[in-house]
Amino acid sequence: MSEYAIEMKNITKTFPGVVANDKVTLQVRKQEIHALLGENGAGKSTLMSILFGSYIADSGEILLDGEPVEIKNPNVATSLGIGMVHQHFKLVQNFTVTENIVLGMEPVKGRVLDLKSASKRVAELSKQYGLQVDPDALIEDISVGQQQRVEILKTLYRNANIIIFDEPTAVLTPQEIDELMEILKALRAEGKTIVLITHKLREIKEVSDRCTVLRRGTYIGTVNVSDVSEQELAEMMVGRAVKFEIEKPEKLPGEVMLSLQHLEVKDENGAVKIKDLNLDIHDGEIVGVAGVDGNGQSELLGAITGLLPLSGGSIILDGEHIEQLSIRERIEKGLGYIPEDRRKYGVVGEFSIAENSAIKSYYKSPFRKKFGILDFEAMKKEAEHLIDQFDIRSAEGPVTKAGSLSGGNQQKVIVAREISLSPKVLVVAQPTRGLDVGAIEYIRKRIIDERMKGRAILLVSLELDEIMNLCDRIATISKGSIVAVNKQHEVTEREIGMMMAGSHKEAQA
Ligand SMILES: Nc1ncnc2c1ncn2[C@@H]1O[C@H](COP(=O)(O)OP(=O)(O)OP(=O)(O)O)[C@@H](O)[C@H]1O
């Protein structure tokens, strides 16, 4: 019997142009929560994909409970008791919870699919591990947090002893994050071994026993989490001191640059999602929209950018009505947008970084030459500049396909493109989701630089500390309306939290 549930020794994996893992070691003790920390592109997902059999290492060794194993594909991983909860769920939307869980390993009684006993087993597992979810609900009807529980149940149903979580909190609301932390502790108490990829140092401190740090594909070290501070973890990971609080020089706001007046948005079933929403954003200021997920934030973003039609109200940008304009016309008028879902609206995976950087301006100088021919050299040059400025880690520079970048580096491509267009109004949704602390520090600085240049910035984020850190004024949204607008220094995080939950006391004050 070994002390370790998992040992990965000298793991090396290369992709064209990049060594994603360079002789990496990972030793995970039985029944511990082991965090895996590293900058964007450090090689965390690659290492876990090797453990789960999605990638084969070029060299190195894997031992489970002291026994060497060869994990040729995910089926082998499953049979060895390894489960993985991916960041992007692999669920069938119009199937029930139970159907999704048994998919691929249906229990058969006689020759009939025995969903009844499967459903019973699912209910037992939910109870044992504190994973509340209705076994008969359809996936499309349950929240993101509950869908994640289905993914966890899937691994438990297949008798996983080792469960890998790839940035599980990136998609969750603060409330769901607290619940997940409890679930992780329950899994550990029931004897499971957990590997947790996360950028959130607070989460590492809260639930993890030990933490392994990677930097640029190499192993830096493993520490007992209780022996180190968040600051020390950050330094180990980035290789330099990181500032958590950023400096925001005083700036007096100027004219109203974006004015939202009596906005109303309905969904396809006619339900009102945004109701009489009013908000002004001046140049030289950052206004944050704080709220519990699902209170109209997505609809607000869709309405401003032109992805969703308005059923009432006006949007005025620098004195001009834009609510009737197309998406591209709004961009032309000076609207920039960093979207929340980078996979849907942000980058095109098949395109290179250069092409992605020019995606909103390819039809203009300097990217378009005479006779409408695209100037790929100009695109590459611009991309090189952005890669350098925003520290985008790629294998082959501007020609690297965006789809092969790590998640955090895809995010940097989008932020770099939108900021570099220097729009009059920059609408920013969850700009630092999935980014490492070093990258967060940089992106926040760039957003503040844009403010200093006199841009008007609207920031929508579920992370209150991001809003408190960056914004000059904070608008709290609840049930599709703005219930209060406060100056940043006049409210506390707690008060905003209460207003988000529907207390209007401060709103009236
Ligand atoms: N399928 C692939 N093809 C080419 N390169 C890849 C592929 N997958 C990963 N890479 C490269 O390997 C390196 C490590 O990427 P990986 O996704 O493991 O990083 P990560 O630590 O998980 O990053 P993040 O925190 O941003 O998710 C990166 O340089 C990435 O571009």
UniProtKB/TrEMBL annotation:
<dbReference type="GO" id="GO:0005524">
    <property type="term" value="F:ATP binding"/>
</dbReference>
<keyword id="KW-0677">Repeat</keyword>
<dbReference type="Pfam" id="PF00005">
    <property type="entry name" value="ABC_tran"/>
</dbReference>
<dbReference type="InterPro" id="IPR027417">
    <property type="entry name" value="P-loop_NTPase"/>
</dbReference>
<dbReference type="InterPro" id="IPR003439">
    <property type="entry name" value="ABC_transporter-like_ATP-bd"/>
</dbReference>
<keyword id="KW-1003">Cell membrane</keyword>
<feature type="domain" description="ABC transporter">
    <location>
        <begin position="6"/>
        <end position="241"/>
    </location>
</feature>
<dbReference type="GO" id="GO:0016887">
    <property type="term" value="F:ATP hydrolysis activity"/>
</dbReference>
<keyword id="KW-0813">Transport</keyword>
<dbReference type="InterPro" id="IPR003593">
    <property type="entry name" value="AAA+_ATPase"/>
</dbReference>
<keyword id="KW-0067">ATP-binding</keyword>
<dbReference type="GO" id="GO:0005886">
    <property type="term" value="C:plasma membrane"/>
</dbReference>
<protein>
    <submittedName>
        <fullName>ABC transporter ATP-binding protein</fullName>
    </submittedName>
</protein>
<keyword id="KW-1278">Translocase</keyword>
<keyword id="KW-0547">Nucleotide-binding</keyword>
<dbReference type="InterPro" id="IPR017871">
    <property type="entry name" value="ABC_transporter-like_CS"/>
</dbReference>
<feature type="domain" description="ABC transporter">
    <location>
        <begin position="258"/>
        <end position="504"/>
    </location>
</feature>
<dbReference type="InterPro" id="IPR050107">
    <property type="entry name" value="ABC_carbohydrate_import_ATPase"/>
</dbReference>
<keyword id="KW-0472">Membrane</keyword>
<keyword id="KW-0762">Sugar transport</keyword>
